[in-house]
Structures are given as structure tokens and as C-alpha cells.
Amino acid sequence: MNRIDEKILELMKGNARISMQALGKAIGISRVAARKHVKKLERDGIIRGYNTCIYRDEEITMFIDIVTMPDKYDDVLKKLSYMSAYIRQIFRTTKPYHIHIVAVSDCVSSLKYLTRMIQKECGSDIAEIHCHAVKEVIKDVYGKVDKYGQKSVSDGSGSNGTD
């Protein structure tokens, strides 16, 4: 990856819908050259997709932290990967046998149900499970939230989306 690729990624991080013409102009290359760079970044797996950040007032995010029994780690990961649409992300962490889950729903009862289902499906394989609802988002570079007013560099303009 070169300097041009880095600039392209920085600009696209804040606006994935930027036109190839605007992208090229911002970094001093042609529209065609910008398109070639973006295609290469996609082929190389550096750009893995384009997402839309949707903000919903009623959306509830919950973090679920699980520590499994040592010999059951992979079994629990497999079960979790097939579970509920409420699970957005599953992470392996550096803590031994630890799994971090991000779950989202528009109602608390759905997240409580998810937790009960995890306990039911994986109960004896789990040493610890802790659930915490997100009370407030302090910083989210994708949703351009920054409670303390730090300038975001994600859109390349320094704007944090609050202007």
C-alpha cells in the first residue's frame, strides 16, 4: 500500500460514497487512476465492503463478555456464530478463553432473551458471562459522534459531523 492508497482510505473512511472524480481531485490524480487504486484495495481485501451507518434512537447495544471452559472455547464460538440476528460482532480477545460480543436490538427483552439462549445453549461450557448495556456513546468515528468535541479525521475535513 502506498501514500495514495492511504489518502484514498482516509477520504473514503468519512464518505464511502465519494465519487471517483472527487476522490482523484482531492489527491491530485485522475478519476481513472483513483478507480484503479480503489479496485486494487478491494481486490487486496483492504476495502472489504461499504456500510451505511443508521442511527436509531430506540436502538440498544449490549456487550456480552464470556469466558469459556478451556476445552470448550471453539465449541462456544461455533454455537455463537450461528445464533441470533441480534449479534452484530463476535471477537476473540487476548484474555484466555474470552469472547466479546456486540449485540443490538430495539428492545431490552430481545437482548435478555439472547442472553438466556446463550446460557441455555452453552451453559456448562461457560465459566463466566457478563452483560452490559451501553448507556451512552462517547465516540464513534463511523457515526461521527464525539461527545467531547475532538475533531474527527475520518472524513478528511476535520469535521466531526456536529456542525
Summed up, what is this model?
The protein is of the alpha+beta class and 163 residues long. A four-stranded antiparallel beta sheet has the order 2-3-1-4, with helices on one face. A two-stranded antiparallel sheet has the order 5-6.
Mean of pLDDT = 86
* Content-based structural category: alpha+beta
Tell me the number of helical segments per DSSP (H or I, 4 or more residues long). 5
Shape: elongated
Approximately how much helix is present in the residues? 25-40%
- Looking at CATH, which topology of the largest domain would you report? Alpha-Beta Plaits
The helix/strand series, from N terminus to C terminus, equals HHHEHEEHEEE
The CATH architecture assignment of the largest domain turns out to be 2-Layer Sandwich
CATH class of the largest domain: Alpha Beta
End-to-end C-alpha gap: 33 Å
In the predicted model, the low-confidence regions spanning at least 5 consecutive residues are 151-163
Q: What Rg do the Cα atoms give?
A: 20 Å
Describe the protein in words:
With 163 residues, the chain is α+β, with helices and mostly antiparallel strands. Residues 151-163 have low confidence and may be disordered. The radius of gyration is 20 Å and the shape is elongated. A hairpin with a 4-residue loop joins strand 5 (139-140) and strand 6 (145-146). 35% of the residues lie in helices and 21% in strands. It has helices spanning 3-14, 20-27, 31-43, 73-81, 108-122, and strands at 60-68, 87-92, 98-105, 126-133, 139-140, 145-146. The chain has five helices and six strands. Strands 2-3-1-4 form a four-stranded antiparallel beta sheet, covered by helices on one side. It has a two-stranded antiparallel sheet with strand order 5-6. It folds into two domains: 3-43, Winged helix-like DNA-binding domain superfamily/Winged helix DNA-binding domain (Arc Repressor Mutant, subunit A), CATH 1.10.10.10; 60-133, Alpha-Beta Plaits (2-Layer Sandwich), CATH 3.30.70. The chain starts with a helix and ends in a 17-residue tail after the last strand.
